[in-house]
Recover the amino acids of this structure.
């Protein structure tokens, strides 16, 4: 798998399909997206940690080409205090998107205020050729903060007539499907590690089960569904093949992708 400078070069040299996009999985919820001439990082978790089962593919200072970094919520494997300051310095053109509740946290990690976009549920930010809409997530609870909003978000990214949904961490809740159906989504990136009482008691907040993620992808009718958040830590893992098998059995028209980190995936509508 390409790592380091080889991965950066692959992204830089890539010409995504038109209409469509290319993406690279970084492990956990982390992705690089290339679409509409923009390089977008979502939840880049780059901190070295001996507990990781998927090692970091990049060092923050190698990321000189980022146009956007989207952080779904303020947990260290999603809003990484190692990655954010490094990308701030290495990619001076980059802008950062985070929940309103994480504004002070982002500022403390050296993100300049004029490069920071803070969103809440339903907010849309339009810039360049991208449109980014925040959708609240239920990460065991909504944990709404009065005056600031929802601390856990997913993002709908629209460009070139297409749309994708990155769920961040979260579960299916009443109204989520209706909200997402407004966007005619092509792709969905969905967590599948599930939840249970032993993990909750250890303060490990849960996500969709693989069955719930499959049903959401199927009900949305996306062309491609990509499971995530199953690989990083042994105590909070799931087998992605269960997602693939269930999706294939129940919604055969929806394709899935499971592959190694760093592999380029070209998606054409």
């Amino acid at each position: 798998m390409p790592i380091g400078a080889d991965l950066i070069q692959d992204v830089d040299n890539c010409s995504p399909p038109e209409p469509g996009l290319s993406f690279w999985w970084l492990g956990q919820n982390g992705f690089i997206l290339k679409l509409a001439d923009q390089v977008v990082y979502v939840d880049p978790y780059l901190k070295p940690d001996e507990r990781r089962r998927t090692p970091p593919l990049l060092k923050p200072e190698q990321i000189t080409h980022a146009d956007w970094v989207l952080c779904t919520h303020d947990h260290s494997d999603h809003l990484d205090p190692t990655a954010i300051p490094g990308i701030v310095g290495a990619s001076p053109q980059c802008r950062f998107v985070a929940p309103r509740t994480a504004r002070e946290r982002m500022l403390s990690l050296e993100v300049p205020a004029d490069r920071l976009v803070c969103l809440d549920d339903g907010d849309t930010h339009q810039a360049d050729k991208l449109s980014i809409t925040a959708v609240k997530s239920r990460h065991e609870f909504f944990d709404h903060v009065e005056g600031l909003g929802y601390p856990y978000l997913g993002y709908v990214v629209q460009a070139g007539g297409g749309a994708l949904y990155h769920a961040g961490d979260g579960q299916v809740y009443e109204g989520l499907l209706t909200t997402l159906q407004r966007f005619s989504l092509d792709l969905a990136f969905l967590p599948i590690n599930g939840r249970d009482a032993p993990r909750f008691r250890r303060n490990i907040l849960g996500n969709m089960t693989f069955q719930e993620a499959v049903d959401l992808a199927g009900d949305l009718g996306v062309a491609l569904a990509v499971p995530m958040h199953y690989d990083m830590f042994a105590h909070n893992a799931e087998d992605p093949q269960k997602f693939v098998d269930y999706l294939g059995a129940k919604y055969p028209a929806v394709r899935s992708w499971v592959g190694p980190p760093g592999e380029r995936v070209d998606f054409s509508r």
